[in-house]
Amino acid sequence: MSASVAEPVEPTIVVAGASVVTAAARGRAAFAAALEQPSDTPRTRIEGFDVATLPEAKSLRRATPHALFGLAAAAEALQEAGGAVAPEESALLVASTLGAANFSYRLWQELVKSGPLGASPMLFSEGVPNALAGHAARLLRLLAAGHMIGGGSGCGLRALAVARDLLECGRARRALVGAAEEWSELAERSFARFGIVAREGAPRRASRGLPRASRGLPMGEGAAMLCLERRDGGERAGAPALATLRAVESVQLPSLRGAAAVDELVALFERTFALARVRPSDVRLASAANGTAADRLEAAALARLAASGAGAPRGVSRRVRALCGETFSVAPLLQVVEALAVVAAGEPAAVLSLSPFASATLAVFTAPPPSERHG
Amino acid sequence: MREEVAVTGIGIVSALGVGPAATLAALEREQPAFTELTAFDASRYAVRRGGEAVAPEAAFPGVDLGPPKLDRALRHLIGTLDQALRDAGMEGGGAAIPCAPHRRELLLGSTLVAMLQAAEFVHEEARVGPERARYRRLAEWTAEAALQRVSRRFDLRGLSLVVSNACASGAASVALALDRLRRGRADVVVTGGFDPVCEYTHAGFGSLLLLSTGGCSPFEKGREGMLLGEGYAVLVLERLADARRRGARVHALLRGGAATSDGFHLTQPDPEGRGAARCIAAALADADLAPRDVGYVNLHGTGTVFNDLSEYRALRTVFGDALPDVPMSSTKSYLGHTLGGAGAVEAVLAILALESGQAPPTLNVREVDPEMPGLDLVRSRAAGGGGRSIDARAVLSNSFGFGGANAALVFSKP
C-alpha cells in the first residue's frame, strides 16, 4: 500500500470478484486486456450472446438481453469471489438506466394498436424493472435484499453506495452490485436528439435543459458486476480480494455548466478523498468523459484541483467509453473494473460518473489488506 | 448504541384524499374510494374502476408543482414532498433543512416514475410517426430526470436514487434511508414512494388475471383480485437526537426495516411465504422487538388468491401463537394497490394508526378465508366489526412484489 494511504477506519468492504459482459470482451481479465488495445471505433453491440453458460438457461428463454447480460456477469463475479456465503446473507443491487425498455416499448405499441388484446403477460412480467434481480435471486440463490436502482449513468456507482450500507449494517455478508443495459433503438433515437449518444444520419435538435453542443458516443450495451464482501472476521477472513472500497460519495450538481457546478464537483473530490484518506495526487482516475458537456466540467474541476495544494489525480483514463461506447449505468462499473487493474499494480484508483442530468458520484479504491491480496 | 431514527414529516395523497387528516377521516368513513377510471380510456377493459387521486393542481393549490405539462405523477410527487417538508418544519426545503446541502438525500421508490409521459409519446408516435413525435417526453420518463427535478426543487443535493422493486419499492426505499441515517451518511433523508394509475400496469395486471371485476376484498374467502390505485407518500427522516435538538414534532420512530428476496418465481409469491417471513422477522429483529410487541399490522393484502395466502403463512411463521392477538388489516380495500407507492403509503397509514390509536378495518370482508385460521383481521362496521382501538407500542407494515421482492418496516411511538 502506498505510504500516502491511511488504513481504513470503518468496516472493511472489499471487492472479492468482478466480471463484465461487453461487446469488446467478456470477463474481468479479458476486459482489462482489451482496454490496453487502443481502438478507433467503440465495439457497442453484443452479437450471438451465449446463454448456455447460465444456470437453468432453459428457464430464461423469455428473459430480456438486459437480464441475461446481468445474470452472466453476476454468475462470473460470484465464481471469481469463490467461497460459500449463505444465500440469506447474500444481497443483490443492480442498476439500470433503460432496464427492459424494449419490452416496455413493445407492450405499449401493442396496447396502442390492439387495446387489452395486445397486453402480453410475457412482456409485462419480464419487463418489470426488477426482473433481473428476481431471476438472479432465484438462479444464484441471493436471498438477502434484492434492489433495483434506477437512474442515469451514475446509478451504478450509487448502487455501490447502497451496497456498502447493507454490508456495514450487517444486513448481508456479501453483495453483488452492478448494472446492465441492452441496446434500444427507441432509446438511441431519443438520446441522439439530445446529444447524449451519437447516431449516424439522425437529425439533431437542441433541447432545453440538455447538452446542446455535444455529440455523444455510440450507444453500447452490456453488464458489469462486482462481488463486495465485508471482511472483519468470519469464515471469509483472509480470502482473496481485488480491492478495498474506501469511499463513495454522490452529489446533485446545479447543472453541467458554470462556476457553481465546478465548485460543487471540486468539493465532491475533496470530500471523497478525505473520507477515503488518500492523497488525490496519488490517485489514478477513471474519467466520466463521454463526449458531452460533462467533459468540460470534469476538466475544469481537475484543473482547479491541480492548482490547489492537494493536487489532482495524476493519471486520467478515458478508455472505457472509447472501447464500449455509452453504456449508461454500466459504464461506471466498467470503470471500476479498469480501476481494479490500477489497484492491482499498487496504486489507489478513483472512478467518476457524471450524468447528463448533472448528478456526480465518485468512488475510491485501494489495495486490499495485505492478508487478502490475490496471489 | 444505535442511533434512533425519527419520522418528523409526512405527506400523503391517494384516492382517500390529500394529507394525513383527510386520509384519516376517509378511513373512518369505511367506504372504498374507487371510481370509474379517467386516467386512460378504460372502456375497452373488463375492469374499469380504480383509486384515482384528485388532480395535482386541485390537491396542492398555490404550490409550485413545476411546468403544467410536467408528468402528473411528478407534479403530485412535488406536492407531496412540499407537504411533508412543511410538516417537518422545513418549508420549501433548501435552507429550511438544518444541514449541509450534500447531507440532504432523496431516496424514492417507484415502478413507473413518469411513465405517463411515455404513454403520451407512444400514442403520439402512432399518430404522427417517429420523426415528428416529441422525444422530450421520453427524457422526462427516466428516473434520473425525475430525481434531478425534485432534488433541485427542494435543494436536496446529496445521494438521490429511485428504487424499483416492483410493489415493494416504496418500503424498500424507506429501509435504505434508515441505513443511510444510522451509518451517518446523511442528516436528513426525504424518502417514500409513488406511482400513478396507468394503462400499462392496468393492462399488464389484467393480462395476468390479477384484477378484480368486483371490489377489493383482501383475505376474504371469495376474493377475486386487486384494483389499482394512485398513491404518493413521503416521509422526512432524521436522527432522533437531531430532531429533539431542533424541537421538531416526532410522529414515530422508524425502529426497523428489512428487505429480502423470495428466489422463487418472477411473478408468483412463494406459496409458503418463506422470503416474506424472513423479511418480517428481520425487520422485527432490526427493531429489537418481539412479535408480541406489535400492536397492529398493515398487511400487503392485495386481494389476490395466492398473495394473501402467502402473506398469511409468513405471518403464521413469524407470529406463531401470538398471531390471534395482533389486529391486522389491508388498506388496499379502500384505495387500491398503489404499486411502487404502496410501501410508503401504507407506512404512513401504519403511522397514522399508531398516532390515532385506531386500526382501520379491511373492507368487503364477510368471511375470512378458512385457510387462514387465527388471523385477527379487523373488519368493517358493515361486516359486524369496525375500526379497532389499539394501544400499540409498535406497528408493522408489509410490502411484497414481483421479482420476489419483500420489504417490511417497523414503527414505534416516540
Number of domains of chain A: 2
Strand pairing plus helix content of chain B: what structural class? alpha/beta
How would you describe the shape of chain A?
globular
Total count of helical runs of at least 4 residues of chain B: 13
Which residues of chain A form runs of ≥5 with pLDDT under 50? 201-214
Do you know the CATH topology of the largest domain in chain A? Peroxisomal Thiolase, Chain A, domain 1
Strand content of chain A: 15-25%
The chain-level structural class of chain A is: alpha/beta
CATH superfamily grouping of chain B: Thiolase/Chalcone synthase
CATH superfamily of the largest domain in chain A, by name, is Thiolase/Chalcone synthase
Low-confidence stretches of chain B: none
Oligomer: heterodimer
Please give a quick description of this structure:
The complex is a heterodimer of chains A (375) and B (414). Chain A is of the alpha/beta class and 375 residues long. Chain A has helices spanning 28-35, 65-81, 101-114, 121-126, 131-140, 155-168, 185-193, 259-276, 294-307, 319-324, 330-344; strands spanning 13-22, 90-96, 146-150, 174-181, 222-230, 243-252, 284-286, 315-317, 349-354, 359-366.
Description:
The complex is a heterodimer of chains A (375) and B (414). Chain A folds into 2 domains: 13-242, Thiolase/Chalcone synthase (Peroxisomal Thiolase, Chain A, domain 1, 3-Layer(aba) Sandwich); 244-369, Thiolase/Chalcone synthase (Peroxisomal Thiolase, Chain A, domain 1, 3-Layer(aba) Sandwich). Chain A has a 10-stranded mixed β-sheet with strand order 3-2-4-5-1-6-10-9-7-8, with helices on both faces. With 375 residues, chain A is an alpha/beta fold. Chain A has 11 helices and 10 strands. With 414 residues, chain B is of the alpha/beta class. Chain B has a single domain (5-412), classed as Peroxisomal Thiolase, Chain A, domain 1, CATH 3.40.47.10. Helices cover 33% and strands 19% of the residues of chain B. Chain B has 13 helices and 15 strands. Chain B has helices at residues 20-29, 56-59, 72-87, 115-128, 136-141, 143-154, 169-182, 199-207, 240-245, 274-286, 305-319, 332-335, 342-356; strands at residues 5-14, 17-18, 35-36, 49-50, 104-109, 160-163, 188-195, 231-239, 252-261, 294-298, 328-329, 358-359, 388-389, 394-401, 405-412. In chain B, strands 1, 2, 5, 6, 7, 8, 9, 10, 11, 14 and 15 form an 11-stranded mixed β-sheet that branches. In chain B, a hairpin with a 2-residue loop joins strand 1 and strand 2. The longest helix of chain B is centred in the N-terminal third of the chain and has 16 residues, at 72-87. The radius of gyration of chain B is 20 Å and the shape is globular. The two termini of chain B are 17 Å apart. The mean pLDDT of chain B is 96.
